[in-house]
Design a protein that fits this description.
The chain is α/β, with parallel strands linked by helices and 358 residues long. Strand 1, helix 3 and strand 2 form a beta-alpha-beta unit. It is 39% helix and 13% strand. It starts with 10 loop residues before the first helix and ends in a 6-residue tail after the last strand.
């Protein structure tokens, strides 16, 4: 996992996986097997990733979990006979690696957004705003829109903008009266673009990623979020899975469970999904009379169509020949409603990125 490098410092992935393992060890581990997590922090360089690969391969583990690692040492893991289950593919090589990924990264996010543009809005044109940073979703999104023949205008701003800056981006993206706007900002950028659109009186609907549906964002903007649709986010209703997340994170955060915000965990939340999905697979292996090992978990993931935790959407490893390591293509789609809640989007509660992959 990448830690300790400005812009690529994600200790919360490791911390939240460890918190999930601690929780699972109180509830039978993986199918009755207790869990031990050995970790290594890469520094966003090939050398440190390779050093971590050698350290992990020599540590006696059965399964490699990738957090966010730009240069995973796949050959080292393969030579050691270690299966690899990743969280988030980043670079093109990840998509064809000898590994399986719990999420599809920029490729499926972009494909899902193109699917919403086509299937929900039948968009004839799209306006995109994004931060001008390396590795953003913008390149994948424009490739997906090109694939389905939807023209677009793409406006790039800074990674952080003033209120006036966000308004300027919205004005430029909306200048040609597109059928849909797409914002690829997160965090403060979600707040700035939502407020900017409302201040300007823009009525064009906006599609954003799940981070813009976080409670900490919605609490700030309130009804300025009307007209926004979110890909990959959960509703803000209490469910058994959100209760489990609260139980996992309360000791980690040092707060009562009812003060944990499951929507505000960022990439750390993906770590919880990774660990809980594998726990679900482990239970299924035991129920089928099998033995839970690193290899059996990998093999089960690679062949099952059972659902991922907590969305209930199917695992589909290998479905896309050009992206053999991707295992999930479907997203829930939600929208902010007039009663202040997040609900499944009317007319398109789930969407598949499969036909729209860049």
């Amino acid at each position: 996992n990448s830690e300790g490098v400005p812009g690529l410092d994600f200790p919360e992935i490791r911390e939240d996986v460890q918190a999930t393992f601690d929780y699972l060890n109180q509830h039978g581990g993986f199918g009755g097997r207790p869990l031990e997590l050995k970790t290594c922090a890469s520094k966003a360089s090939p050398e440190t990733s390779q050093s971590c690969a050698q350290e992990i391969a020599g540590s006696g583990v059965e399964l490699v979990l990738l957090g966010l690692d730009l240069f995973p040492g796949y050959p080292t893991f393969e030579a050691s006979g270690l299966p690899v289950i990743g969280l988030l593919p980043i670079l093109p090589g990840d998509y064809t690696a000898n590994a399986l990924f719990v999420t599809g990264g920029n490729a499926t996010l972009a494909g899902g957004m193109a699917a919403v543009a086509k299937e929900r809005f039948d968009a004839k044109s799209v306006g995109i705003i994004s931060a001008d940073i390396p590795g953003s979703t913008e390149a994948a999104l424009t490739a997906s829109l090109d694939k389905v023949g939807i023209p677009y205008v793409s406006i790039k701003g800074g990674s952080e903008e003033t209120d006036a800056g966000y308004q300027g981006l919205m004005v430029q993206a909306n200048a040609n009266d597109p059928d849909l706007l797409v914002s690829l900002y997160d965090g403060a950028g979600c707040i700035g673009t939502m407020r900017g659109r409302a201040t300007l009186g823009i009525t064009t609907p906006v599609l954003a990623a799940s981070s813009c549906a976080a409670t900490e964002v919605i609490d700030q903007v309130g009804d300025d979020a009307l007209g926004w649709i979110f890909l990959g986010a959960q509703t803000n209703e209490e469910t058994p899975s959100t209760q489990i997340i609260r139980e996992i994170m309360a000791p980690q955060l040092g707060v009562p469970a009812d003060e944990v915000d499951p929507s505000a965990l960022g990439l750390g939340g993906l770590g919880i999904i990774q660990a809980m999905t594998l726990a679900q697979f482990a239970d299924a292996i035991v129920a089928d009379g099998g033995e839970v090992t690193g290899q059996s978990l990998y093999d089960y993931f690679g062949s099952t169509t059972t659902s991922l935790w907590p969305t209930g959407l199917p695992a589909e490893c290998g479905k896309a020949p050009a992206y053999p390591a991707i295992c999930t293509f479907e997203f829930p789609v939600i929208e902010y409603t007039e009663d202040g809640s997040l609900q499944p989007a009317k007319g398109i509660e789930t969407v598949s990125a499969f036909d729209y992959l860049p």
